[in-house]
Amino acid sequence: MKTAIATVSIAGDLAEKLSAIAEAGFDGVEIFENDFLAFDRSPKEVGQMVRDHGLEISLFQPFRDFEGMPEPQRTRTFARADRKFDLMREMGADLVLICSNVSPIALGGIDRAAEDLHELGEMAKDRGIRIGYEALAWGRFISDHRDAWEIVRRADHANVGLILDTFHTLSRKIEPDTIRAIPGDKIFFVQLADAPNFDMDLLYWSRHFRNMPGEGDLDVTGFMRAIAATGYDGVLSLEIFNDQFRGGSPKSIAVDGYRSLLYLMDQVRRVEPDIKIPVPEMPERVAVEGIEFVEFAADRKEAGELSAMLTALGFQKAGQHVSKAVELWRQGDINIVINTDPKGFAHSSYLAHGTNVCDIGLKVADAGATVRRAESLGAKIFEQPVGPGELRIPAIRALGGSVLHFIDSGSELSRVWDIEFKPAGGEAATTAAGLTRIDHIAETMNYDEMLTWLLFYRSIFDTDKTAMVDVIDPAGLVRSQVIENADGSLRITLNGAENRKTLAGHFISEGFGSGVQHLAFATDDIFRTVEALKANGFTPLVISPNYYDDLDARFGLEEEFLNALKSSGILYDRDDQGEYFQLYSPTYGEGFFFEIVERRGGYKGYGAANAQFRIAAQKRHFRAKGVPAR
Fold it and tell me: Which parts of the sequence bind Mg(2+) (predicted)?
């Protein structure tokens, strides 16, 4: 199978689109007619541009409102098709998409449509052109691929075949296994798109909210399994109408598209081992066993401030790197690294972003296999010179300019803290607060980058996504979605900011890019943790008393329990599975903060209902520090 993407899927003019598509690794391109019409080159010149990029024109589309027209419109449609065929020959395209008719004057009838397609096939045959017929989900008479196939079958012409599109099938909840009965040689082209599971007008849904396979909620894998079962070995192409993509980076969106196709084909190959799927061999999605470390890049002054905050949180300096200005801070199973070394990646990260989380280490079963899968999906390997006493730890470039390192238990990597660090020594300068592990990492990015982050994590790691929720900031909306594994040892919240006036948007603009905005530490007893934090001089974020009045109204809490929450600044949530407790530090720098959480029972969420009250309190804290309100 070959890969392609429609020019409508990405931003830019036609030249920019072709460059991005070729660089991402696609074999071909669907030329969307409007992209050609808006371009100032002849069909012949456009065709040559495509070939100069090492691409082929996989499809020219769309040709609308063709079949079943009354006279005199029918004669005009054939004349219009004749002109398009001339254009295609000059361009070097040999397949055109005919989408099912939506015209209010169209006439129904399977046989009438089949006769029209047969006649068009005869016209196309003489020019070496093939006709692909597609059922639009909102077609006036034909909106189901089964009906479209019956028309193609009755047309009975070698140059007339079927085009299948995931959105048009799955949006109407048509069972994809019905595709298995269609002969593979009569499927001329396959278009792929995912989408969030919305209940809205099909045309509007299609034109604005499609996304890459793996980014939405449709059963694209089931669709692709059915396609593979037919023996189809033609082009797999992405046709994505998405407002975010139209305003995004052409290169980034094209890379996402290619990654999504590889990810999809790898999934199909694993559930249909008897079907040959031409995708590079790669290890399975990686099972993450936990977060091994989080590394901050800082200078000496800001490292001191960060160390003071960690001390108040009950962390102890546990180690000093054997050859670099790098400290290890530890509590429970949490390892925090502070890197102030004047050379290397961390220093570059500090110069670009100020104090920030530059590196995350994940515990995996096989670090080498993790890197191999990531590289197969387009991730870049990260390497830097290994100094005295250091291990070569497998790593990749992550998103937002950060790095992901991988630690496994089957090699010397499991002894990284003993090998690379010497004990700090001395008495503990703080009281441990009962923090046990990292509950979740919260990463903030511009909203239009959010799907890129989602696909990156889901394609490499064995994770699922939760439904997107809206977080209300007084200055605007922030969209939040979680990537997590089955046992909760890896939880990453993705927070997409739509404007810089929100707390999340301020963090991005002032930190010069996306990144980790907060770390949430788990405790088994948050009230005992609060007592230890008080002993360490920790001052929590101050929550409005009005919040607790509303909390009592919502949940009907016992007065003593409510007062304990209020006096400690703890936020509370509850669902039918369990309870959730949250305590926040004040903000550090331009919006970074720590969170402490306790989960009781089977609570799986993240306290989304409390987010707006937390944000309001953080903004009050900003104003108290003299930072202008956002």
Answer: 440, 518, 595
